[in-house]
Structures are given as structure tokens and as C-alpha cells.
Amino acid sequence: MIAILEALEWMLTKRSEIVRSFYVAIGHDEEGRGLDGAAKIAEFMREYRLDDIEFILDEGPYIFQDSITGVRRNVAMIGIAEKGLINIRLTAKSSVGHSSLPPQKTSIVKLAEAVSRFKSTAHPNRFGQGPERETIESLAPYCSLFYKILYTNLWLFGPLVGYLLENDPLLSSLIRTSTAVTIFKGGVKDNVLPSEAEAIINHRIYPLDSIETVLEFDRNLINDPEIQLEQLGMAVEPHPISPAGKQAFGYQTILKSIQQVFPAVAVVPGVMYAATDTRWYLNFTKNIYRFSPGYLSLENLSIVHGHNERNLNSYHFN
Q1: Domain of life, per the record (predicted)?
Q2: What is the separation of C-alpha 222 from the centre of its chain, rounded to a whole number of angstroms?
Q3: Separation of alpha carbons 306 and 292, rounded Å
Q4: Phi-psi sector, 70: left (phi>0), alpha (psi -120 to 50), beta
């Protein structure tokens, strides 16, 4: 936000000629689903008929430093799509009483057995079916010879590439609906059998999957009548895929801007793996893109929502 406002201030100071009108929409609660921020801004824009938008740019993937296997350059990824989001609550119940007389399986044991199925790779590898194919093909010119051969011949090596991406710490998130067990709650006292235990599973939904297909897959994955599965809170379907060709004005404008500021990086289309406020603007235009103009390395991935969460100076200055 500070960078955006500084850029606007700089333009006013320099009296830059603005060729096309643009709007800056800054919500205050994106981490809380944007209900009082972006949702209200979108409502305001519709009310005043400010919804004839050529393209939208929101936060998104960074410029990844030495993060993609086989690629010899830093990679700026423009999100042309965005994964959906759903939280699943699993609940297990069992008899209560003193811990000295336990049942064969307490609620925690039942739940643990179910949760153990929810590894990050629980959902199927969908490589080649969605926009990640365009990402890989666009990376090919910047790869070492081995990967260049693979990425330019996906008709032949597609299954192998899909297998290799399973182990790529960044691109593996693009090829499936991701799965993360984020909350596990059970007993409250060491000598009391817990009557109930629950866990929360966070999914980021692959562009060609849906809320319903994820729910169905999870039910089949558990396949246990003693485990209750339900959607927790609001879920969001994957966003439509925006155009990224040479005729896509919005994409090309962002691409050229990145190349002007970061001339040494490779610019490719990709998928935004997290959630943004663009969910509230989907009816304004089909051209919605996501990009954050700062560097991010594998070593710094844990900064985002991690301990001592912060921005590095390199995120801000360019």
C-alpha cells in the first residue's frame, strides 16, 4: 500500500501525463475475507457505474529468486488465475470418562487416523490440464538444456514433468488442489477422555476443480462413517483464467512494466496460489491479473504468515 501511494505521489510531483483513468482500491481486511473492505468498494463502484474496467491488477506472485528448478533466471510470475479456497472441519467423537479406562480408540485417535490421509499431495496431480502448462512452456527458453528439452516437448514428456514438479517447492503448488492441516484440537486435561476432537483442513482449489469436487474427494478419502466432515465458513470457487496472449492488453501492459523495472527477469503467466481481494471484482472484467513487484527466495518463504512476519526492504524498493 505504501509503495502504491508513494508512486501516486511521485506521479503528482512530476506532473506525469496520465493517458488512461485508473482507480486505486485499498481494502483493510483482505485477511478477513474482505467483507468490509473490497466488498464495500465493489458495491460502491457498481452503484456509481464505475465498473467498465479494462483490467485489474492485485497482489500476487513475487519475483522468485533461484527458486524454480532448472531455470537460470529470477522469474516474475503474473497470476492469470487464482486458486479457490475451502476450509474443511473433521470431527470425531468417543465415550468420555477417566483415562485409566480408555476405549480402543479415543476421539483423538480416530481423528488422527483420518487426518493422516491429508498429506499435501492428497489430491491428484493435474499437471497439463490447467494454466500451469502455459507456465512451464513459457519457462522453457530460460531453462538449462535438460529442462528445456522437457518443457518444449510436453506432448512427450508431460507425465515426467508432472512427476518432477511434485518435488519442486514452488511449482508443486500449481499442479493440484493443495492440502494443509492447520488446526488440531482435542482434550483439555491429561486424565480425562476427550468426548470430541476436531481438525481443520485448508485447501487451495486447483483452477479446474471446484468446491463440490473437493468435498466429494475428501469424503471418499476418509471413507469412515465415524468422522464427520463439513465445510467451515465461506468457500470460494477458483477464479476464471484471464487471457495472457500478445493481444491481451492488460497482461502485456503489466509484462512490459515488469521488464522496464526488472529487465533481467523472466516473465511468465502463472496461478496465484493464495487468496486476494479480486474475488469481489470478478464481474467487472475478464482481465484480472495478480503480481507483487518484489523479490522472494525459498529461504524467505516462511516470512509470509510465519514467525516475525515482515517485509524485506527488497520487497519495497525497485
Answers
A1: Eukaryota
A2: 25
A3: 18
A4: left
> What DSSP character marks residue 70?
T
Task: Please name the fold of domain 84-236.
Answer: Alpha-Beta Plaits (3.30.70)
Strand partners, 145: none
Q: In this structure, what C-alpha cell is assigned to residue 23?
A: 482507480
Residue 244 DSSP SS3: coil
Question: What pLDDT digit, counting tens, does each position of 278-302 carry?
Answer: 999 999 999 999 999 988 877 776 6
Question: What span, in angstroms and rounded, lies between the C-alpha atoms of 111 and 283?
Answer: 40
Cell of 216: 466429494
CA distance 16 to 232: 48
Residue with cell 472441519: 89
pLDDT at 296: 84
Residues 163-206: tens digit of each pLDDT: 999 988 788 889 999 999 999 999 999 999 999 999 999 999 99
Other beta carbons within 10 angstroms of residue 81's beta carbon come to 25
Which sequence spans correspond to the domains of the chain? 2-83+239-316, 84-236
The Cα 56–Cα 34 span in angstroms is 17
